[in-house]
Amino acid sequence: MFDEKYQPRSLRENIGNASPIFKLLNFFKDNIISSILIYGPSNSGKIEMIKGLCHQFFGKYEKTQVLYIRAREKFQGVDLNRKIDDFQYNYFYSKKFTKIIVFDNFEYLSSLSQMSLRERMQNESVKTKFWINGESFCRINQAILSRCLILHL
């Protein structure tokens, strides 16, 4: 698509959102990164910021270490768990990197899917980090919000 051609490929190309980018870089460098919720209006550069950060730190290993899930695709709990299991167990785990699962438009997931994901976040917080992207957090489960660092763009 035309807009994907001109998306920023790195954090240096991302013009806006300097404060959240700086916060994420510091968390990432210190290896204290946890699950994150980034929210803001649509087309504010949330997913481009996440892609730039992943590309900068993972480089050629980005495809094996990062999974992007669009929540608007109407996943059921079983399908979502199967997709996450396939990603976690079919690719190697590097001792240097943790795996990251990025959810785009998370508020569109059903409450059942969010509850199953909450248990995953609790059980697999060491091996896998969950980065949640959404327009607002009013439709996101409170238990998930309590496990995330919240950034506003």
Overview of the structural elements:
- The chain is an alpha/beta fold.
- Helices cover 42% and strands 17% of the residues.
- The protein contains 7 helices and 5 strands; from the N terminus they run ααβααβαβαβαβ.
- It has helices at residues 2-5, 18-29, 46-58, 62-65, 77-90, 111-123, 142-145, and strands at residues 36-39, 66-70, 99-104, 128-134, 149-152.
- A 5-stranded parallel beta sheet has the order 2-3-4-1-5, with helices on both faces.
- Helix 5 (77-90) runs parallel beside helix 6 (111-123).
- It is globular.
- The protein starts with a helix and ends with a strand.
- The model has no long low-confidence stretch (mean pLDDT 80).
Compact summary:
With 153 residues, the protein is an alpha/beta fold.
Keywords:
153 residues, five-stranded parallel sheet, 7 helices
Helix content: 40-55%
Which ranges are low-confidence, i.e. pLDDT below 50, for 5 or more consecutive residues? none
How would you state the average pLDDT, rounded?
80
The outline comes out as globular
Relative strand content: 15-25%
Q: Helix/strand-derived class?
A: alpha/beta
Main sheet strand line-up = 2-3-4-1-5
Question: Helix count?
Answer: 7
User: For the report, how would you describe the main beta sheet?
Assistant: 5 strands, parallel
Distance between the termini: 25 Å
- Count of DSSP E strands? 5
Can you write the helix and strand succession as a string?
A: HHEHHEHEHEHE
Round the Cα radius of gyration to an integer and report it. 15 Å
How does the SSE layout of this entry go?
Elements: H1 2-5, H2 18-29, E1 36-39, H3 46-58, H4 62-65, E2 66-70, H5 77-90, E3 99-104, H6 111-123, E4 128-134, H7 142-145, E5 149-152
